[in-house]
Every structure is written in C-alpha cells, then in structure tokens.
Automatic annotation (TrEMBL), chains A, B:
Protein name, entry field: Putative maleylacetoacetate isomerase
InterPro entries per record: Glutathione-S-Trfase_C-like (IPR010987), Glutathione-S-Trfase_C_sf (IPR036282), Glutathione_S-Trfase (IPR040079), Glutathione_S-Trfase_N (IPR004045), GST_Zeta (IPR005955), GST_Zeta_C (IPR034330), GST_Zeta_N (IPR034333), Thioredoxin-like_sf (IPR036249)
Single GO term (MF): glutathione transferase activity
Source species taxonomy: Bacteria, Pseudomonadati, Pseudomonadota, Gammaproteobacteria, Pseudomonadales
The protein's Enzyme Commission number: 5.2.1.2
Enzyme class: isomerase
Domain of life: Bacteria
GO cellular component, one term: cytoplasm
One of the GO BP terms on file: glutathione metabolic process
PROSITE patterns: GST_CTER, GST_NTER
Keyword terms of this UniProt record: Isomerase
C-alpha cells in the first residue's frame, strides 16, 4: 500500500495527491502537521525518513521517496496509465519546464520556512512578507502565462487535452496564491486551465479541504 | 548545432554545460551577461526566448528549451549514452531527488535576483545576506550529505560509479558555496564526490573559469 506523508495545505503534497488520484492508485494519508509540536516535520522519526524535513514523502513498500516532482515521475514510470508526461522528448521537456518554473522559481521562495525566516530572522512585517510573496508569484506566473498562451501545444490543459505533471503543479500554486490574495486577472490562460482541473474528481479529492487533516 | 545561452557564473548554466560535455556533444556558448546593461536576460530579444528571463536556454534547431533540469533530461532522452539517470525507477527517483534538493531547496533562494531583492527592497545588509545564503546552503547540504552518506547506492559519484544528473547539480552548488565562503567541513561525502567530479575533463571544461565569458 502506498503511504503519503502529507499536510493538507502543503502545495508540494497537493501535487503528489493529484498525481496519485489521476493514476487511480489507492493510498493512505499520514498527516504531518507543519505547525504543531514546533513542526512535526522536524521530529526525529520524520527527519530520519526525510533529511530535508519537508513533506511530501511517499512510502512504497520498503522504499522511501522524497521531492514531489521526483515522486510524480516515479509514479508515472511504475504506473504508466494515464501518462503524466507526453511521449516525445520536446513535449516532455516543455511539461517539465512548466512544472519546474513553479517548483523552482515560485514555490521555494514562498513556503513556510522562508516566510518564517523573513519574519523571525529579518524582522520583515506582514506587509513586507505579502509583497515578497506576491512578487515571486507574479514573476513566475507571468512566465507560465506566456509559456502557455504563446504555445500551440497548450490545450484544455497545460499540454494538450489531458492533465500532466504541469497541471499537478499549477493548481496547487494557484490555490496558494488565492490564499494569499494575489490578484490573478493578468493570467487568463492559467485561470482557464485551473478551472478545467477543478472540474475533475482526481483534482477535487486532492484538494486541501478534502483531506482528513483539513482544518 | 546546439546553442547554449549561458553566463559563466550561473550555476544552473554550469549544470547544463556539464551534461553537454558528459554526453560529448558539440555546442556553442552564447554569453548572456546577468549584470551588464541592467541584466541582458531582461533584454526583449532574450525575454522572448525565455519568459523566465533566466539562463540557461538551449536552442536545438528550431526548438527552445528552458529550465536546467528539464534540459538535461531532454539531452539524456535524445542522446542516451552515457546515461545521466539510472535505469530503474527507484534509482531514477533517488537521482532526481538529490538534484531537486539542490535545484528546489537551495539554489532558488540564493540566486542573483533573490539576493538583490533582499538588498534593494528589504534593505538587508551584506552580513544579513551572507547569513541568509549560508542558512539555505547548510539546510540543503545537510540533507544531501545524509542522503549520500546513509545510502548504499552512493558510489564514487552521487549514484554509483558514474556521474549522473545529481553530480551535474552538486558541483555547481559547491562552487557557488565556496565563492560565498560557506564552510563545507560538515559535508565529507559531498566534498569527496566533488573532488571526483573535478578530476574529469567534462566537469573541468564546464567550469566558470573555463568559459569564454569568464572574467
């Protein structure tokens, strides 16, 4: 049985939950509360599992997997249907580039530990932290919007008419941006695709509010 | 002919240069100076090529590829020898997780545009910026060190006895950390592997000081 160490609001966990659901795999959620007990991701048992002290972590039998994009590619290789990457190398590179624009250029700057460092070590107030958050979302989403709007490969979803690794990353980042009240009117293609995702059950049941640990 | 838009000191460009050299591919460097002219990555012609306004960008005939890890996987798919990822899904997931720990947890926090934001928007002084830089390197390298030291899959290189995508990411991040004078004594496995990398010609000729735009 697949076990996913997850936090309902973690957008990296959300990506993997979508992928598991798109594959139709059965999985158990093991909630890791990022705020309780000084952060359950720092508890020794969990740190032994993932030296990064981050969620998500996937257990597959004896194997332990970390890093959301690596986990999703693993699932795609072990359970090829439906594919989350296209078959051609250029298409695969495009989907990975979209995913990495979110996972490398936006999310790392805006996750809990970074916002905490700004607050606690650098004494940046709430307005300053919001401006920081918005800045990196806007930089990243402007790039993603152009990559989507200018390419004939964009379909109902980020790449063609079926969800891919890129869509697994896009919806969680939009959820996160909405939570921080970042205006999204400048990104019509992103918004259109996210609306498509939200109509599909695998995305719906991966949503933060649908998780057993939702608050 | 492959064309790589690159900046000698950019560690994401450095990763792709290593991969191109490991594959034995011929490529032309197109230097993009990140500091001159207000940053040549922001010039309209370049922004049209990469909406992220970041290096590296790879041109392969009519195709334009962005995001260093996506580019390296593309090269690995189009030019399979020597492989930069192992054959088994678990090994592939491990190599990708190591690469992503650097590319998602360390580098995005410490690149030029983030250090500039700290300086210009948040008025963080040089000591504060150094502490920030060191903090994220130490968090990331502590995780990578444990992932390497605790796994029987680690060999002369990050995964077995031949270089992989993980090594393409590790050496540039160590180069970067050394430039910022981050002490590395706590990471003996990382240092041992990086010494191995530095003995190989494909890594040597990818080094910042070996580039045509080196200063």
């Amino acid at each position: 049985m697949l076990k996913l160490y997850t936090y309902f609001r973690s957008s990296a966990s959300y990506r993997v939950r979508i992928a598991l659901n798109l594959k139709g795999l059965a999985w158990d959620a093991v909630p890791v509360h990022l705020l309780k007990d000084g952060g359950q991701q720092h508890v020794p048992d969990f740190a032994a599992l993932n030296p990064n002290e981050l969620v998500p972590v996937l257990s597959d039998g004896d194997a332990t997997l970390v890093q959301s994009l690596a986990i999703i590619e693993y699932l795609d290789e072990c359970h090829p249907q439906p594919p989350l990457l296209p078959a051609d190398p250029l298409g695969r590179a495009r989907v990975r580039a979209l995913a990495q624009t979110i996972a490398c250029e936006v999310h790392p700057l805006n996750n809990l530990r970074v916002l905490r460092y700004l607050e606690r070590q650098l004494d940046i107030d709430a307005d300053g932290r919001s401006a920081w958050y918005r800045h990196w979302v806007e930089r990243g989403f402007s790039a993603v919007e152009r990559m989507l709007a200018e390419s004939p490969d964009t379909g109902r979803f980020c790449h063609g008419d079926t969800p891919s690794l890129a869509d697994c990353c896009l919806l969680p980042q939009v959820f996160n941006a909405e939570r921080f009240r970042v205006p999204l009117s400048a990104y019509p293609t992103i918004r259109r695709i996210v609306e498509q995702c939200r109509q599909l059950e695998p995305f719906q049941s991966a949503a933060p509010e649908a998780q057993p640990d939702a608050e």
